[in-house]
Write a structure and sequence with these properties.
Structural class: alpha+beta
Oligomer: single chain
Helix content: 10-25%
Strand order of the largest sheet: 3-2-1-4
Shape: globular
Order of helices and strands: EEHHEE
Number of helices: 2
Number of strands: 4
Strand content: 15-25%
Length: 96
């Protein structure tokens, strides 16, 4: 989205955590993210419906929310700060 809207600020999508170097395209519902060996998040939803008249869609012709938003439930809370390391644990128990 930065390529289409270079002036877009962090937090423009109301995100709580912004990542770098983590392959979020491979994240599935049920997977776990662990931040700084302390905070544990369980992925509960990937994407959400773009509401009609979304400013991003009006400006770019597309919206990333239906496919790129990752939503999580906090399993174990704690302090999250810039630069914390995020570990990605997969849960593939339901796959055959």
């Amino acid at each position: 989205m930065k390529a289409l809207l270079p002036g877009i600020d962090r937090g423009a999508f109301a995100e709580n955590v912004i990542t770098r170097g983590l392959d979020l395209a491979s994240v599935k519902v049920g997977d776990t993210l662990v931040i700084n060996d302390q905070v544990t998040l369980e992925v509960t939803q990937i994407g959400k419906e773009c509401h009609s008249g979304c400013v991003i869609q009006q400006e770019t012709g597309e919206c990333i929310m239906p496919v790129e938003g990752v939503f999580c439930r906090v399993i174990n809370g704690g302090r999250v700060e810039p630069g914390n390391i995020i570990a990605f644990l997969t849960d593939r128990s339901g796959e055959s």
